[in-house]
Amino acid sequence: MADPGSLSAAQHLNELARAFSVQVDRDWNAARPRWEAALATGVATPFQHVEVVDAWYLTMTLGQSVEPLIVTVHDAASRSHVMSLALIRTRTGPFRTIAFADLDLVDYNAPILGPGAPRSASEAAVLWRALRSTLPPADLLDLRKMPKEIGGIANPMAQLGTVECALNGNIVHTGDDWNAYHFSLKRTDRKELERSWRVFTRHPDAAFRVITDPAERQRVLAEIERQQPLRMQATGKSYQLGAPEKAAFYHRLIEGPAAANSIVMTALTAGDEVVAALVGLKDANDYIMIRISHQGGDWANASPGKLIIARSMQWLHEQGQRRFDFSVGNYDYKRRFNVEPWPLVDLVKPLSWRGLPATALSHAKVRLRHHAAAQQTVRRLLRRGA
Known about the structure:
With 386 residues, this protein is an alpha+beta fold. The protein has helices at 9-17, 28-41, 50-60, 121-134, 178-182, 187-200, 214-234, 244-255, 259-262, 304-318, 332-335, 356-369, 372-385, and strands spanning 20-25, 66-75, 81-92, 95-100, 112-113, 140-147, 149-150, 153-154, 163-173, 206-210, 263-270, 273-282, 286-294, 323-325, 340-350.
């Protein structure tokens, strides 16, 4: 290495960046063994577990202009694992974007952090220099919904000039005593859950069930797919999960051989009828709810949506789970379970001159969210122009 005193700052960073060995695979099947090896020694959120990433790449990159970019970083000298990233490159006309493998299916986008992961902002900057020199050409880096830390370790990608994400996670720490958590809820919310269970169990065949049989999991998922658009239509919201590739993602997710341990499906049933169902991701530390549906009509008085959450949490607590994640979206029902917000950040960087406007717009939106008066002015102007 050259004498640092004789180098410019940029040259010095380039020299340091050579300490990292970066491999970019464009074939998930080829990269999967390295991904599994990284998980064995690293930390990640459940969304980076192999079952999820496998289902994503094998469904969301079929027949689309989506190019997989699976990044593995090692320390060049020690070969210690530093970081792995599940990325994609998309193209809209001549405009190319590098983003997480997400497309609105992943709530938390994060690297797998290995033993050699950077611990400071300066080290993260050097790592970014190594990544930037290895990634294929693009106009914009658009990394959304990143936690600031993963498994108690600072996320180096969140130390590169990020901005506040519009979304946040919603976490509940129950502690070891389930009854203590239950009685920490507001009295009205606690009593409603107790009443809902009494109403539900008046049906002679009413039951809370953990669904493990593969055929039964597919049947319950089909019922989720039937119930969800009806609920969304009733609330005036658009339903996006019916797209063929997104539906295929969930089907592949729940049917894999390893899914029984990490993909939890629970349901409230009355005979053969699925009254409510919940799908979540689980590891030793976290349980994250990713998809929920419930019946209305005659069952509405039993509040089946909130009831399936409460009963699932209680069952998981008995299995040793203590941290429950209601995922992104600040809906009122989540606050009834005493959730605490978990902040997320976005990293949006121009990689060419074409990416400058998109970067400026993204940062302007963040500033706008912090100024209510400016938001009202923009809304008035938009209404006038309509």
